[in-house]
Amino acid sequence: MIEIQLEQLLTDRGMTAYALAKQAGLHQSVIAKFRHNAARAVRLDVLERLCAVLRCEVGELLVRVPDVGKAASVAMKTTRSGATTGKSSNHATEQKSNGKRKRDTKAA
Questions:
Q1: Residue 83's pLDDT band (boundaries 50, 70, 90)?
Q2: Which among 70, 89, 78 has a CA at the least distance from the CA of 2?
Q3: So where are the chain's domains?
Q4: How far does CA 106 lie from the centroid of its chain?
């Protein structure tokens, strides 16, 4: 799991989220998502702006931490071939199968 260490960096630098947003040219809602680890995706230009203002490296802002529960869940879903199975991939296979049957039925 990736954690965003923005709150800690702000504290270390004595900077407010408002000041960071202004200096980085970002909306306060973007900063809030980062502060609360609620961001689902991160644009590279946003990372660049944050790191420039905070004078840090990306590795100081984004840190990978082990997620024991999630790692065990993924390991149990892995097949012998190493492919991970999940609802989305099974669902796609079912759709293909259903679509193929429908085409076969129409052709017959």
A1: low
A2: 70
A3: 2-64
A4: 42
The residue written with tokens 């689902």 in the block is: 40
- Please tell me the predicted confidence (pLDDT) of residue 72: 54
Whether the full predicted model's pTM is greater than 0.85, yes or no, is no
Contact 57, 72 (CB under 8 A): no
Kindly report the number of other CB atoms within 10 A of residue 53's CB atom: 19
**103 token code pair:** 């085409």
HSE, side-chain direction, 13 A CA sphere, residue 20: 26
Question: What CATH code would you report for 2-64?
Answer: 1.10.260.40
Tell me the residue ranges of DSSP E strands in 10-96: 62-64
Q: Are 31 and 6 in contact (CB under 8 A)?
A: yes
